[in-house]
Amino acid sequence: MAREFTSVGVVGLGTMGAGIVEVFARNGIDVVAVEISEAALERGRTTLTGSTDRAVAKGKLAEADRDALLSRVHFQVGLDALHSVDLVIEAVPEHLDLKQRIFAELDRVCKPEAILATNTSSLSVTEISVATTRPNQVIGIHFFNPAPVMKLVEVVRTVVTSADVVADVEALCERLGKVDVTISDRAGFIANALLFGYLNHAVSMFESRYATREDIDAAMKLGCGLPMGPLALMDLIGLDTAYEILDTMYRRGGRDRRHAPVPLIKQMVTAGLLGRKSGRGFYTYERPGSPVVVPDEQTPVASESALADGARGIAKVGVVGSGTMATGIIEVFAKAGYEVVSVTRGAEKSAKVFESVKTSLNKGVVRGKLSEADRDAALGRINWSATLEHLADVDLVVEAVVEELSVKKALFASLDEICKPGVVLATTTSSLPVIDVAMATQRPADVVGLHFFNPAPIMPLIEVVQTIRTSAETTTTAKAVCATLGKTGVVCGDRSGFIVNALLFPYLNDAVKMLEASYSTADDIDYAMKLGCGYPMGPFELLDVVGLDVSLAIQRELYLELREPGFAPAPLLEHLVTAGYLGRKSGRGFRDHTRR
Ligand SMILES: NC(=O)c1ccc[n+]([C@@H]2O[C@H](COP(=O)([O-])OP(=O)(O)OC[C@H]3O[C@@H](n4cnc5c(N)ncnc54)[C@H](O)[C@@H]3O)[C@@H](O)[C@H]2O)c1
User: Family, per the entry (predicted)?
Assistant: First the structure.
């Protein structure tokens, strides 16, 4: 018989604690909510009522249920109030000595059979447990932010946690409507071990002015479908908490440089810029605790006219290539009203591209998204050619030929001879340095990267890659073009992986390393990222879709260019590729797709 939990205690009512109180009270469990002072208690109470009032306003909670929920919570200062609860969850700041002190005190105050749990994100549950005389009843119950919303709970058992305590806590998670993954005590558990290297890397991109905060966040939201960008997420987590988690993970997790907190984080914490909770972090919020971002001095001017300011006029666009990307890009430009010159290597290829564009536009018609007249007009705007000379009078060329530097360089040298002055020359390369292509011309100031995502007609993001020779006018023009295509253009520097791939693939590679180390299973790791962090797919699902060979090639590029030891491709990824397990396309990758 599983243990009955009729009342629980929550220690610390900050970002996490207040949410955890809500989770229990919502599920009919009495909560003793404890803080260090009356003022902190009041803050916690305000957070809880704010959250439940919002749920009522959104129609997600009946007023009577809110009142019942709040009546189950008893607010108290000091740990003495916890003498008769069945379980305590500690959610105080991420400092080992503080947590050990609190656990020693809880051990004295709580009844002998009570389970003592920590919500730590990165500290050793084992080290916390030995501050008590009952380490077998100490366990990690790691909720995700915001606790009432996120489905995942990581249950962390140490080598001494007794099996019945683990089973009781697992049953409790189920009662709370949560999905649990049970794991052993390792720095960052599953989700944070995979998340924080990525977050820290995003902060370093911002710190080095590689891209703006808006562009970094938009890139990850629109390019990967994440619920929020990394800098907005840092603000939600709290920069002080994020700093402590990174610092602990760096020290506990083998001193991986990627977890050494970027200096800017410490500076922001010192300056009181803690994120949402203090009203300002990477972004500025309406007031402390509010999720509403308000404009500040870094907010870009977003109006259409400002976008077009300083941009060259573009009416006619050349697209070179006949593959998946070129085909999608031709459709995107033609649909947006541009006159398009498609250049392929022959009439046969042009016919194939024409058919693909027509089929895709027809799908739009069938779905009611495009009228027949608009389809015909779009097709009518495309001129088909097999010779580059036809690009003599275009205003913009988008190159989407094979990903080989020698081919692209030769093409750009030809474009340099053929195209009129003032043309913007863009490459869609996803892995080659744009500057190499630019230097094949006599006009590197006019060369820019336009990194579309696949499928181009659907994906809302384009990375605008500026080299050290790209002129401001060229970048402005490229951004303005993205806007006319109905897409978001994010501007970044000319480094391997640009924004999205540089942030995405090391995370995927880390997931493979975690699997390889047998810390958890592919299913649980996928669950953790989907249910704990709101990712649309888990890392192994995504790797199988992208292709393991493609992923390995990108990861190798990143490793070669940035020389970051932590970016070394996971041996398991290399082995799977060698074995021909490339993902969905070959029927097998991390999972077997032939049997589904
Ligand atoms: N922020 C996140 O996204 C997140 C997610 C999962 C887990 N966690 C973990 O949850 C824990 C709490 O983090 P947080 O972000 O909620 O921190 P926070 O700073 O927002 O809140 C901590 C609260 O603890 C209170 N406190 C401090 N000392 C206390 C004491 N002696 N007795 C009672 N209360 C005390 C503080 O007054 C504060 O309200 C940390 O271990 C953190 O790693 C955080």
Answer: Belongs to the 3-hydroxyacyl-CoA dehydrogenase family.
Q: Evaluate whether residue 298 is within a structural domain.
A: no
Q: For residues 216 and 503, give the distance between their C-alpha atoms in angstroms, rounded to a whole number.
A: 10
Model confidence at 303: pLDDT above 90:
no
Q: Which domain holds residue 116?
A: 7-185
- Find the residues whose C-beta lies inside 6 A of ligand 1: 11-17, 34-36, 40, 91-94, 102, 119-121, 142-145, 237-238, 241, 245, 277
Does residue 289 lie in a domain region? no
The answer to whether 487 touches 461, Cβ cutoff 8 Å, is: yes
Task: Convert 145-178 into a string of H (helix), E (strand) and C (coil).
Answer: CCCCCCCEEEEEECCCCCHHHHHHHHHHHHHCCC
- Domain finish residue from 494, 514, 548: 494
CB 488 within 8 A of CB 459: no
457 and 533 assigned to the same domain: no
pLDDT for residue 439: 98
What digits encode the pLDDT tens for the residues 475-496?
999 999 999 999 999 999 999 9
290: CA distance to ligand 1 center in Å?
A: 18
Atom of ligand 1 nearest to the CA of 143: 6
Instruction: Please give the model's pTM, rounded to 2 decimal places.
Output: 0.92
Number of domains in the chain: 4
Whether the per-residue pLDDT at 2 is higher than 90: the answer is no
Cα angle, residue 345 at apex, residues 340 and 350 outer, rounded to 5°: 50
Confidence at residue 254, expressed as pLDDT on a 0 to 100 scale: 81
